[in-house]
Design brief:
By secondary structure, the chain is α+β, with helices and mostly antiparallel strands. It is 20% helix and 42% strand. It is built from six helices and 18 strands. Strand 1 and strand 2 (20-25) form a beta hairpin.
């Protein structure tokens, strides 16, 4: 029998039992792919991460990210939380970590309090903003249990956008956001009608809230009915909002998870660069559980 230690942390929050929970295995050497997937399914969280030695010794770790059902090329709160855990083990170099992932290299800046305690992390999405499929408002409204008129298309239509992990991003009327409820049959219809999505339909709804943004994410076909904080959707949203403006850079505070009773705060930045729009997302982390998994 083999024992692997794990840590769980709540990500994008400064209080326990808020934010998005994550399980991290700081040393997953010797685990098979099947064992990683089985552990992610066992934890039943939106994602679980496994840290392995990097292929390039100048990097910090190779990080694999699993949902309940499959491996992800990149995700936001898993990187922030894994950065927090590994920095607490002293594996950062001058406050910086670099993770090797399927989507590319992910740079992590460690956040510390005045006394040096690690409080969270900020990550840079591994790819510039990519825009793909544009979808009709009606089917998107059906997915969220809303009326077509509640999908706002003045700024942009519902569009697939990503910076390492694609989402369908749609703006909704502020009063509609809290009423949204995922309709699995409607998600299945979109998956069947759009083979390019490969059956993975993740819907990220947002509404303007004064100077900030409120958001919710539904991915029922991937096992996540609703996500408390989605960093890999927050970055393309920040990039998309910047692309609609004439600014060179922008900052957005995104609140998510309120309707789930797990309020989360995601601090994003976006900037124009020679290779496209790049973005970061960061936030606080709080440890919750420590233990061993037996295989």
């Amino acid at each position: 029998m083999r024992a692997y230690r794990f840590v769980t942390v709540d990500v994008f929050t400064d209080r326990r039992f808020g934010g998005n929970p994550l399980a991290v295995f700081p040393d997953a050497r010797g685990m098979s792919d099947a064992e990683m997937q089985a552990l992610a399914t066992e934890f039943n969280l939106s994602e679980t991460t496994f840290a392995l030695p990097p292929e390039d010794p100048s990097h910090s770790a190779r990080v694999r990210i699993f949902t309940r059902q499959y491996e992800m090329p990149f995700a936001g709160h898993p990187n922030v939380g894994t950065g927090y855990v590994l920095a607490n083990e002293g594996r950062d170099r001058d406050g910086r970590l670099v993770f090797e992932e399927i989507a590319g290299l992910v740079e992590v800046d460690v956040e510390r309090a005045a006394d040096g305690a690690v409080t969270g992390a900020t990550i840079a999405a591994p790819q510039p903003l990519s825009l793909g499929l544009r979808l009709e408002a009606g089917p998107i409204a059906d997915c969220a249990g809303l009326e077509t008129a509640e999908i706002r298309t003045g700024g942009h239509p519902p569009v697939q956008a990503g910076m390492g992990n694609p989402f369908i991003i749609a703006e909704v009327a502020p009063e509609a956001l809290s009423r949204a409820r995922p309709d699995i049959a409607a998600f299945q219809r979109i998956a069947a009608a759009q083979p390019a999505l490969n059956g993975r339909v993740a819907l990220y709804l947002y509404a303007r809230d004064g100077q900030g943004v409120r958001a919710r994410m539904f991915a029922p076909l991937g096992g996540t009915l609703e996500d408390a904080a989605t960093g890999s959707a927050a970055t393309p949203l920040a990039g998309l909002l910047l692309s609609l403006s004439g600014e060179a850079e922008a900052r957005f505070d995104i609140t998510q998870g309120v309707e789930m009773g797990r309020p989360s705060l995601l601090r994003t930045t976006a900037r124009r660069t020679p290779d496209g729009i790049r973005a970061t997302v960061g936030g606080g982390c709080v440890p919750v559980l420590r233990g061993e998994a037996l295989l």
